[in-house]
Model the fold of this input.
Amino acid sequence: MIEMQDVTFGYREGGALLSGMTLSLPAGSFHFLTGPSGSGKTSFLRLCYADLLPSSGQLSAFGHDVGGLSRDGIAMLRRKIGVLHQDAQFLDHLPVAENVALPLTVAGQPIDMQALKELLGWVGMTGHARAMPPSLSGGERQRAALARAVIMSPDFVMADEPTGNLDWEMSMRLLQLLVELNRSGKTILIATHDMDLIRAARQLEVQARVLRISGKRVQLAGADL
Amino acid sequence: MKPEFRNVDWRSLWQGLVGRDGGVAGRIVPSTGFTAQLTLLSAGAMAFLAVFALALSLATGRLADRWSSSLAQTVTIRVSAPLDEIEGETGKVMAILDQTPGVAEARMIPEDEVEALLAPWFGPDVPVEALPVPRLIEIREDGEGFDAAGLGLRLEAEVPGAVLDDHTRWRQPLVSAARRLKFLGVVSLGLIAAAGTAMMILAAQSSLAANGQVIRVLRLIGARDVTIAQAFVRRFTRRAATGAAAGTALGMLAIALLPDMDEAGGFLTGLGFQGWGWLLPLLIPLIAAGVGFFATRWAALRMLKAVP
Done:
């Protein structure tokens, strides 16, 4: 699903942030990505959904070389990837239901109102369908963002510090939703520095692997991948 | 072909003109009231000016054509002489004209026509026959025309009381000025269209810049550039068309309320539209919509390239 071959990435103003990354995220897998703040977790995710491009090396997603994709090609790639951002960005002038259905709208696909209702029910947001995003709490925003991330039935769902602003109860609820998605065959990648969340996932009996960014490289359980 | 003009979505242009807001797709960009009103106002003002530029251009074109056609090929000879000699002098002039190449017809203007010419100054009951009014001979040139300078010299030598009034001396600069005025009217229309285009591009860029966060979210959830651009294009097309329609209506009303040409006479009262000419200003809102569509589309796609 995601293949990296000796991928290096760095911002213009600095040196390499991530280097020598060679790894594979196979379909149906569940990965946590950990590392200290500023280690490059968010940049790694942004590379995966082509918001950033590698400085060198080859990154392919769904069999396509990301560096060779046109702007429309990148848009099409992102329709296959659902992303939960830490700040759960919404269009504040549209109600929650329309925000959740936005990926369908921009893709020109019809909105099945019954399916939308069921999706909002799955994330526990039925009562907030007509609410405006600024009126939502942190947990509600994250759950609405999860609904938006999966409405296109993406093959790959990634989350960037999804529980950073949530209490433990809400964090567990969100994690359970992501585990459910993985059990239905979706590939999951969660960037987090919350080790309790990783331990809780093991209790949910999910086959999760932990990737750690250390010294600009991505390691699996302490060993180079 | 540049990507901005490739795969133009004509359905979107049509929706921008007459369609509804297009559901959520039309509302993915928040409406900014102040910018919207400024765009409407600017489009209306441009259209109002365009109506006058168009009217000026058409009126001066008509004027130039009228002066060219009605005065073209006509020249007058004024014969002054004592009453007992005037018949003889007039006959000499007619004989000279008979021999002059390029003269198609020479006609002595009858007394009743002369009376009509003098009536505005002396009143309707003037006894023309009692006044030392010169005889007037109207000459119509043939296609090639005649040598006005040569004829003038010959008349001076053979009939000293005859004076050739060559209208072309004052007519040509007027026709030329009218044609130049028409050209300036057309240039004004072009400048108004250019200014309108620039205004639309600036307004679209301002709107795009103000909605940077919205655009970023849309890109992240898989929106293509053309989809995002259409949300702006649809809105600006409609604003341009609506504002221009209002400006055009006001401009046409103002033109219609100008004093009637027959009532007041004179040059300026000829400013306006005649017959089918009244349909021409109706093209202004359509052109404004087209300008809004292409200018916004170009600006939007250009700016969106900067968003990853």
About this structure: The interface with chain A takes residues 23-25, 27-28, 30, 213-214, 216-225, 227-228, 305, 308 of chain B (CB under 8 Å). Chain B has eleven helices and four strands. The longest strand of chain B covers residues 135-141. Confidence is low (pLDDT under 50) at residues 1-5 of chain B.
